[in-house]
Amino acid sequence: MEHQFDRTALLLGDEGVDRLRKSRVAVFGVGGVGGYAVEALARSGVGTLDLIDNDTVSVTNLNRQIIALHSTIGQYKVDVAAARVKDICPETVVHAHRCFYMPETAAQFDFTQYDYIIDAIDTVTGKLELVMRAKEAGTPIICSMGAGNKLDASGFKIADIYKTSGCPLAKVMRYECRRRGIRHLKVVFSEETPIRPHASGEAAPPGKIVPGSTAFVPSVAGLILAGEVIRDLCAAVST
Questions:
Q1: E strand or H helix at 44
Q2: φ and ψ at residue 44, rounded to 5 degrees
Q3: How far apart are CA 20 and CA 149, in angstroms?
Q4: Per-residue pLDDT tens digits for 153-177
Q5: Residues of the chain scoring pLDDT < 70
Q6: Residue 50 pairs with which residues in a beta bridge?
Q7: Pick from 181, 131, 191: which is nearest to 159 by CA?
Q8: Can you tell me the distance from the alpha carbon of 63 to that of 21, in angstroms, rounded to the nearest whole number?
Q9: How many Cβ atoms from other residues are within 10 Å of residue 48's Cβ?
Q10: 168-179 and 124-137 helices, crossing angle to 10°
Q11: What is the reported pLDDT for 1?
């Protein structure tokens, strides 16, 4: 009898598939990057997913976010993603948190219950809080650096934060991590120089620049994040 994860087991083995089913992964940020990470985790059979985001789907998300459809505009991203995960794998447990992660909301989450954390949020403050809390809990974390204003989907790499270059967000994170005594942090980044966006009709909040984006750059970053999580979780089986 065919099983949903037969093809996955050919590469990861039955023990790897079982490990994923018993794993709990939190994805902070369910947008262009995080949405594709959630998709890959669900299709790989991760047993429990925590999805954290307080944003709703907008018409400008249609160009790049896997959860964005005309039928989902106005809905909370975590709710749309949760429904999609359940349609992919009904056995997966999904905890949807309508919440922006920041220092003020950090106490709502117990990081010791997660086997892995994916950071796909936009703010440096939130990212640093995630990293600090994950390190305190001893929970592995992987962070997405900048994916906006870029066109080269082949440029992404996995590296320690201190071995990154070319990415403005990674530069800030390197500085802030060093200040906080964080010695290592796994990230996905691109050395591509960000492109200066053309003038747009989309209104931005005061002091914020709306980045340009495509369907093929953030999606690749999200899939790389998920792939690294899956490999790390399965590697634990053989060690």
A1: helix 34-44
A2: -90, -10
A3: 34
A4: 999 999 999 999 999 999 999 999 9
A5: 200-208, 237-239
A6: 26, 95
A7: 191
A8: 32
A9: 17
A10: 50
A11: 74
